[in-house]
Input
Amino acid sequence: MAEIAVFGYGTVGSGVVEVIDRNAELMKSRGVDMHVKYVLDIRDFSGDPISSRIVNDVDVILNDPEISVVCETMGGATFAYEYSRKALEKGISVCTSNKELVEAKGAELMKTAREHGCSYMFEASVGGGIPLIRTINDALTAERIDRIYGILNGTTNYILTKMDECGAGFDEVLKEAQELGYAEKDPTADVEGHDACRKIAILASLVSGKCAEWKDIDTEGITNIDTEDFRFAKELGCSIKLIAMCDFNDGCRAIVSPRMITADSPLNSVKGVFNGVLIHSDMLDDSMYYGRGAGKLATASAVVADAFECVRFDGKEVGRGWSEEKLVFADADDMKGRFFVRVDNANADAAAAALGASDKIKHENETGMVSAEMNGKEFKKKLSGLSGVVKFIRF
Ligand code: HSE
Output
């Protein structure tokens, strides 16, 4: 029997306990007998069935030779970092859902794991329950991945879906999402694109083998998307999604931004809190991964699957990671694309001519148009010479 400890009894941590308790027999029949011996949390859970397994002192766990795997679901990069590092130094594998820590310290923690004959696993840190990390590490191991493009944040996808379907404004939908528990009280990390950025940084690191830092990635959130954008989008047969993308052709370029997504894209039908990711690789071509990118049991399931692998392979390093060498991104504005632009009606004809936009949609005060294909630098240069531009959204 493998004894497991869980760091943090919040949403995901309690999910880990539930998944292991509920599916222990099933996993045993598949070759791994797991049991949660301890849960580390400083809060008081008296009266809760978990209370007999709660410990407040991390050393109780780290000094127990029976513990072979820790599931770290604390979040943050301070205590979670210190405790994860200490566990790995003792040869205890760590499986985490903590994207902030994986992005900031993943390379170092993987190195520590290697040096101590154990594993640092992070399937749940990107795409929640969607098996993206294992797919890239295992199923696509014979592939050269040249592009990852997708919806990696459920909160913003919920907000944009509601704005699209109900014609409601950003503030109204955000408030509703907070009331329903889909959005955090402080929604900054989600709505400003930081969460999606950390996730694409982790994927960029995994594919490139070097350490991508989220602050090096151009990131724009969804706070400026308004009802007029959706009015134009509908007339263009598009939806608007927050897309995180990384392109590995000729260097590595990454960007997180809202985009108009045409009806024929499979990402167009990724709605609500769901995530959807397209991976393009040289042999397989396009493959798509879809599912719950957040939520208690979906995310916990991915953490437990990592723990299962650690036990199955007796702690030996499972999967690929990346080195501590910094990934230097090339300029995302070198990538070609088209751009949706809103211009006041008085300047619309001049803008359309400059941007090579063939079709125009005229509203009361503004005209919407889609530029010809050009790279970001060329587009921004043309845009700076125009008058009456209200905004642009990548296509
Ligand atoms: N806030 C994240 C989301 C949770 O909305 O997708 C999962 O990382």
